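tool=predict chain=A
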Amino acid sequence: MTLSSKVVLVTRAQAAAATRRTLIRAASELLDEGGPDAVTLRAVGASAGVSRGAPYGHFTNKEHLLTELAIGTWNSLADEVEALRGDPGFEPGARLERALLALIDVARRTPHRYALMFSTSAGTPVAAEAASRLENEFLALVADIVGEPDARRYGALLMSSAHGIAGMELSGHLAKDGWHVGVEQLVTMLIDGIRPGA
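tool=predict ok
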């Protein structure tokens, strides 16, 4: 293989990766604007400004593309929680509170992507791996408060509670004037409830 053929291979690989990123970005925008029904491979290709067949070269079908969007959202949230874990500016309870609020914020900012995260089958290996990454980062924050032996059960309680809070807020059933409590207060109450001696 000559140097020029190596450069062409690298360039093709880079171009393919750039096209894939552009397609995922276009799909994210379509999802955010119109939900899963708005995301078709044809619409994604048109929105990305690529050839009609380009999306089919990167994704086997719509479900494959939607799974990639869910994985991207899980990974982005895991990156955020990982950064919180390493932030010495907050005590453990504050880090955990910020992590739960980050999850709820995904639902607030991008409700369709949030729903997609939890509707993608946990039996899909790459999706399960991305979800597990977030889970592990989150459990480390929980363990900082309750200890390693109790982290899983309290982590499940916190994660499912945050998911319920997000769902109630999105549907309008958590109106502050009805319950006299806001999302941030509920999250604080959850963290306070798991602290040793609570």
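The chain has a mean pLDDT of 91. Residues 70 and 116 are 6 Å apart (CA to CA).
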